[in-house]
Amino acid sequence: MPDETTESFEIGPYLVIISVVIFSSFLTLMPFLFGLEDLLSIHFWQTGMQVVYRYWDGPLYVIVSQTFYAPESPLYAATRFYPSYYSAHFPLYPFVIRLFSFIGAFEGMIVATVLFACAAAVVFYKTVKEFGIADHPLLLTIFFCFFPLRWFLYRNVGASEAAFVFLCLATIYFLKKDKIEFSVISAALATLTRIFGVFLLPVILASLALKKQLTPKNVLLTLLIPTALLVLFSWYFVSFGDFYAYFGVNAVNIREPFHIMISFNNAYFRELYGILIVIYAIAAFALWDRGEKEMSLFVIVYLAFVTLVAHGDASRYMIPMAPFALIGFEKIFPKNRVAFMAIIVITAILSLIYTWTVIPINPMPEETYLRIRETIAMM
After folding, report:
1. Which residues are CB-neighbours of 189 under 8 A, at least 6 positions away?
2. What pLDDT score does 4 carry?
3. Reported pTM
4. Could you tell me if 169 and 292 are in contact, meaning their C-beta atoms sit under 8 angstroms apart?
5. How far is C-alpha 93 from the geometric centre of its chain's CA atoms?
6. Per-residue pLDDT tens over the stretch 268-283
7. CB 81 within 8 Å of CB 73
8. Which of 37, 244, 270, 366 has its CA 20 to 30 A from that of 288?
């Protein structure tokens, strides 16, 4: 394996990575930007950028970016969701949307997503490069930009996955660098992005214990993670009068392990779900065998939780484990650069086809979206 642990900084690979993310996002959005109804053999039965803006749950994050859980807002009437429903959409991603809302709320949403996708890819590259994890760190990173296909979809629409993946990667990166303060801050921010971020707490504590760094100071530092969640829930109590508002929305999706295999009446889904669970379990042990204890612990803890989620979009919940699984399986990728690039091209084509065909079938009703835009314009 070539020496990948050098501390020298080369800007070239980062420019390549960012260019790949941005250009692939442009390709993804191009049919909608130009209002195409057909592209090759693909028919867009809904087109225009409003289809991308309407993709669930993007508009709900836009609403949070405008209200930040205010007890009352005309935007709540626009969607007809009760105010505390928005407690399921944590504030960090909407906060960044708000920063870019000067170009338009929905436009800022897409910009925020793409920027977080760039950040996630950069941290992934830094991890595999600095720790000498991959023979071809740049190619592995470019592959990650397109795989899994579900990840590619959600890094191009209004969704918090890109932000959450970036912060999970940053947490593990800093943990491996023994920069505990930055690791904890990243985990706390992840917790303010999606509630699953709180599961980074046992990952950090277990990693510190394995490295014999579980000092009182470090334990106290990790309390920032649950404190972030406590502050957010206190905010919910002030706004909605319900400290547990989040669970009022999502508690129904937590059941016994593998309940979705019984309740979801689709044989194809059941097989895919079972395959994914086994693959990620293998990835956890592959990471452990490679000495990547921090990553292995993350996959183990996160996978244990995912088995409790009784939701049909199981592959979406598994996205945060994907970059670590790629590292666990890095040895199976071709050593030959040309072969590796061929796989990347095939994966990119599949991801584009998948995203082009999925975006038009999962949008918010157009009339609801238009009410939201009109209400924002009047605020």
Report:
1. 92, 167, 197, 228
2. 42
3. 0.96
4. no
5. 11
6. 999 999 999 999 999 9
7. no
8. 270
